[in-house]
């Protein structure tokens, strides 16, 4: 019976949920994909081949039981599909929206390799959990037994929230500290609403609050509260701060007015979307309206910036990337969405200098960031250097090489640097002795237990991995929660003896 519901990839073609047309979606920050209806979700799930070695599952960082919940969806057993989905994933509806499925599960689908088009795994995952919310199947955490041990989690991003959920379900007392005024980390302030509407994140944090997780917001560790104080208050501590320090450019006029960091730009836009008053947005510093915008970078953050600029009413938006389309790190699906919305990609290009002007007078790019009067120039153009791909580097990708004499100036009133993120120097910022870091500045933690060099202190997510995917942070958070539970259970046994 079950088999008859499946293996329909030969007769049924691949379909994504309907996508809002580029003109209308460019006017707002709502998600661009419409919901699957039940019949369409069942139909698309039935395309799964139920293969004996599910590469979709093995290439998912969470090892989600994808073939199982696809089969259950195809059979109309949506609640069971949700239960199976949430066994391995704390936030399936978030991963269904923002995971780069084209690089993970869908990119390794067996029927894709045979030319039939991948199963639309991400859209079905989103459908299953959105349905679960609508039907009331998702309820606050209710541990069967309370435990006295307390865990402090620093960082309310996906890694910290995933650990908080899992630990609370085991009955532990959990407190989450975050420097921002809302929980969610990059989910709430870094990822635009057209990919992840904010109420999707807010209902998850509200679920945790109702389940007994304490949130201490607007608190900066090292300033408002010391790391030692947090350690003293809790039986174990989990560091899940993420990485927020922006990589910079060593070029002329790098500090010109109108040159901004991607995270500052996206945070301002998301705060406005959430209803906050942001002076730097209102005065135009972090607002693309009417401007010629140049975004530097080729990752998912750059894609978020170019598509945000379009929605803010930019005059034009161009993305400079030093390699070609085939070698860019961002999602190809996002590149296509950006192109549909009017973004122009300038491949094999890198910034050589920022040209600016002071008090209205033209000023050529200098080797320093200010003129003789001490004034910072205002951006007027980007000196674009053309590149070609040479020999592969250590990552296996071809290295970009400069083409001499091919420079030109690209006019711009707003330049957004989306060059990736680096870790802050936490041991120094927090005044912590004995917290070991790697040569890259990330916290050194055991890759299985997530234990750091300090007893009872664990670390997960980007602060350990470097800038990575949300799904990896969720996996780390869940694993660390299990390690912390084992550590505290062992400590309790020792104390009892």
From TrEMBL:
Keyword annotations: 4Fe-4S, Iron, Iron-sulfur, Metal-binding, Oxidoreductase
GO molecular function: 4 iron, 4 sulfur cluster binding; glutamate synthase (NADPH) activity; metal ion binding
The keyword rRNA-binding belongs to this UniProt entry's keyword annotation: no
Residue ranges annotated for the FAD/NAD(P)-binding domain, each copy included: 152-477
EC number in record: 1.4.1.13
Keyword Transport appears in the UniProt entry: no
Domain spans labelled Dihydroprymidine dehydrogenase: 26-136
Enzyme class at the top of the EC tree: oxidoreductase
Pfam families reported for this sequence: Fer4_20 (PF14691), Pyr_redox_2 (PF07992)
Family matches, as PANTHER family: GLUTAMATE SYNTHASE [NADPH] SMALL CHAIN, GLUTAMATE SYNTHASE [NADPH] SMALL CHAIN-RELATED
Protein name in UniProt: Glutamate synthase (NADPH) small subunit
Lineage: Bacteria, Pseudomonadati, Pseudomonadota, Alphaproteobacteria, Rhodobacterales
């Amino acid at each position: 019976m079950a088999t008859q519901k499946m293996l329909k990839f030969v007769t049924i073609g691949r379909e994504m949920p309907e996508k809002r047309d580029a003109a209308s979606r460019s006017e707002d920050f709502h998600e661009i994909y419409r919901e699957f209806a039940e019949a369409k979700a069942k139909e698309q799930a039935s395309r799964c081949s139920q293969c004996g070695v599910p590469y979709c599952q093995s290439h998912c960082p969470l090892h989600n039981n994808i073939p199982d919940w696809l089969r259950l969806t195809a059979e109309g057993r949506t609640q069971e599909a949700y239960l199976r989905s949430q066994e391995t994933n704390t936030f399936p509806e978030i991963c269904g929206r923002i995971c780069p499925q084209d690089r993970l599960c869908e990119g390794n689908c067996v029927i894709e390799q045979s030319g039939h088009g991948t199963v639309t795994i991400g859209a079905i995952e989103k459908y299953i959990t959105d349905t679960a919310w609508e039907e009331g199947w998702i309820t606050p955490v209710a541990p069967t037994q309370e435990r006295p041990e307390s865990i402090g989690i620093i960082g309310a991003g996906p890694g910290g929230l995933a650990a908080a959920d899992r630990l609370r379900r085991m009955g532990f007392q959990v407190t989450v500290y975050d420097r921002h005024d809302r929980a969610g980390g990059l989910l709430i302030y870094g990822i635009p609403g057209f990919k992840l509407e904010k109420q999707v994140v807010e209902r998850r944090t509200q679920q945790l609050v109702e389940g007994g997780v304490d949130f201490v917001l607007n608190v900066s560790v090292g300033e408002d509260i010391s790391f030692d104080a947090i350690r003293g208050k809790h039986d174990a501590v989990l560091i899940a701060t993420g990485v927020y320090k922006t990589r910079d450019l060593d070029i002329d006029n790098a500090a010109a007015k109108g040159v901004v960091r991607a995270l500052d730009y996206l945070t301002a836009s998301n705060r406005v979307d959430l209803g906050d008053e942001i002076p730097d947005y209102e005065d135009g510093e972090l607002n693309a309206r009417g401007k010629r915008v140049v975004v530097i970078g080729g990752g998912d953050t750059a894609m978020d910036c170019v598509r945000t600029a379009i929605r803010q009413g930019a005059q034009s938006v161009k993305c400079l990337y030093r390699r070609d389309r085939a070698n860019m790190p961002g999602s190809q699906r996002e590149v296509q969405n950006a192109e549909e919305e009017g973004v122009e990609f300038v491949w094999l290009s890198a910034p050589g200098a920022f040209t600016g002007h002071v008090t209205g007078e033209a000023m050529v790019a200098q080797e320093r960031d200010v003129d003789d009067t001490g004034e910072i120039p205002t951006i007027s153009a980007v000196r674009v250097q053309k590149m070609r791909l040479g020999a592969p580097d250590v990552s296996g990708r071809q290295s970009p090489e400069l083409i001499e004499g091919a420079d030109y100036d690209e006019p711009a009133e707003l330049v957004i640097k989306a060059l990736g993120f680096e870790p802050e120097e936490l041991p120094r910022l927090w005044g912590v002795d004995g917290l070991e870091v790697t040569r890259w500045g990330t916290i050194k933690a055991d890759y299985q237990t997530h234990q750091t060099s300090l007893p009872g202190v664990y670390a997960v997510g980007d602060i350990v991995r470097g800038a990575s995917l949300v799904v990896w942070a969720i996996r780390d958070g869940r694993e660390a929660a299990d390690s912390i539970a084992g550590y505290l259970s062992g400590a309790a046994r020792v104390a009892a003896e």
